[in-house]
Amino acid sequence: MSALSDKRANERHRVLPWRSRGRAAARRGPEATLSAALDELRLLFGPEACKNLQPLVYSDWVNLPLIGGAYSHAISRLADVMGVLGTPYYDRVFFPGEATHSYDFSTAHGAFETGLRAARELLAR
Hints:
Elements lengths: L5 H4 L8 H11 L1 H16 L33 H7 L22 H16 L2
């Protein structure tokens, strides 16, 4: 078993409610968001988990009008379809994005790689 105690291991689901706590903290600003995130890490991994952590970058996705804190995820049983989503439309419209990667969907590197793929497809025309 990991360093988590049995009790904490049985509370793995505690990370899931972070979204609502994260939104509430984000509305109060960067300091509240950092404090809430560190509290969550301490709860999951113990009091020493954050002693060497410092804030590096703060992104306020919750308050961006066109994003509103949204995120997406793919369903792994539909992985075969992901590559199809990236198929150019009449060789004029190209579709990069993590959801079009055949196996690295829902990842930043999948989004990056599909951006490179779409650029190569466009340049090859």
